[in-house]
Structure to design on (261 residues):
């Protein structure tokens, strides 16, 4: 009787036997309506950016990764906290860079010589979070010997290749830098900065995490120099052991061969 009286006072137009769960149902309906509204608002802002790019930067290419790629526009908007001006500025820079760098012209043949060093590769399996995996073997990176431009091409080619392996609904990849055997001759501040700049400026919201595996003491000074240059991406870095890789990121069947021994 007390429960019914309480309900009657709060909802005088409802019968006293009306079940309490109606409030949870109303809350869920409100939440769904909010999600739909947010989606509609995002779509409007995407179209606003798209129209602005068409008006002011009509010379930029169309199509995938072009000025009318709505998925790309949405990622840049999220990265710029839905500021139209900031997203447009970053998008135009990224699309222009893709043209000048020749991203779409990169191929297995064009990077073959550097790929054969074994300094980097795309793992055949996804990690436990369904992310494609880009692995860098730091001990095979020799900046005094290798052409830095060719290194950058290999890096971008593998980023693109990893993104092409994304399952539906997934947006981020995992980077693993194997530091076992790392020596001073492998240190390359320029390339490490380039790697993070590529993700920050040209592939926002694409890098989920970077794992530095078994970092020796000689690597720490390089990291201290690099970290301030990485902006918010520094928070994506995690120093870990091979054992962590085995236990937290892969199953026995999907573990990269270089981490099995």
């Amino acid at each position: 009787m007390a429960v019914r009286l309480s309900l009657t006072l709060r909802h005088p137009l409802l019968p006293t036997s009306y079940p309490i769960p109606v409030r949870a149902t109303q809350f869920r309906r409100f939440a769904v309506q909010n999600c739909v509204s947010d989606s509609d608002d995002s779509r409007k802002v995407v179209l606003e950016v798209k129209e602005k790019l068409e008006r002011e930067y009509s010379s930029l290419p169309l199509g995938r990764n072009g000025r009318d790629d709505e998925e790309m526009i949405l990622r840049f908007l999220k990265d710029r906290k839905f500021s139209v001006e900031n997203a447009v500025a970053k998008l135009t820079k990224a699309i222009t860079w893709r043209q000048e760098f020749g991203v779409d012209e990169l191929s297995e043949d064009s990077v073959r010589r550097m790929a054969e060093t074994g300094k980097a590769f795309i793992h055949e399996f996804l990690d436990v979070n369904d992310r494609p995996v880009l692995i860098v073997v730091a001990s095979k990176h020799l900046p005094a010997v290798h052409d830095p431009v060719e290194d950058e091409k290999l890096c971008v080619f593998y980023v693109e290749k990893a993104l092409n392996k994304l399952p539906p609904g997934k947006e981020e990849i995992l980077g693993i830098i194997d530091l076992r055997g790392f020596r001073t001759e492998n240190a390359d501040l320029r390339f490490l900065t380039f790697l993070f700049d590529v993700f920050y400026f040209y592939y926002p919201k694409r890098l989920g995490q970077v794992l530095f595996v078994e970092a020796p003491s000689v690597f720490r000074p390089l990291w201290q120099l690099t970290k301030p240059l990485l902006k918010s991406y520094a928070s994506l870095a995690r120093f870990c052991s091979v054992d962590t890789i085995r236990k937290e990121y892969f199953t026995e069947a999907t573990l990269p061969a270089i981490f099995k021994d």
Remarks:
- The first helix runs from residue 2 to 10.
- The CA atoms of residues 64 and 173 lie 19 Å apart.
- The beta strands are 120-122, 133-137, 173-178, 207-213, 237-240.
- Residues 1-37 have pLDDT under 50 and may be disordered.
